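[Automated response] Your request has been received and processed.

Submitted sequence:
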Amino acid sequence: MIGFLAFLWVRVGQTLKRGGGEPLSGNGVFPPSASVKWILMTGISGPTLGVACYQWALEGTKSGVVLPIVAMAPLVVMPLSLWMEGDRPGKRAIIGGVIAVIGVIGLGLAS
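Generated structure:
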């Protein structure tokens, strides 16, 4: 929601500054309806569901186990960005991912 409000603030400011500007959709201020759906879905899924699941995990599990698993989020994003945007991760990102997986496996075996 904050991202959507920031978008509106910037877009309205640009429109007022230029005296019109090119519209992103038919009315010149709001993004297309498909974009609004994605913005709302992202705003709800990350902060709301993500933090709720994180707190739920901390309630029943030690933080030393939960935090490394949460820190593996970039490992999920790398394949998704490759699939959705064609963005290939660099060697350092892959090496860091391998080290993170090895660390989580080590913590799992140690506990």
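Summary generated for your ticket: The mean pLDDT is 77. The CA atoms of residues 65 and 111 lie 8 Å apart.
If you did not submit this request, please reply to this message.
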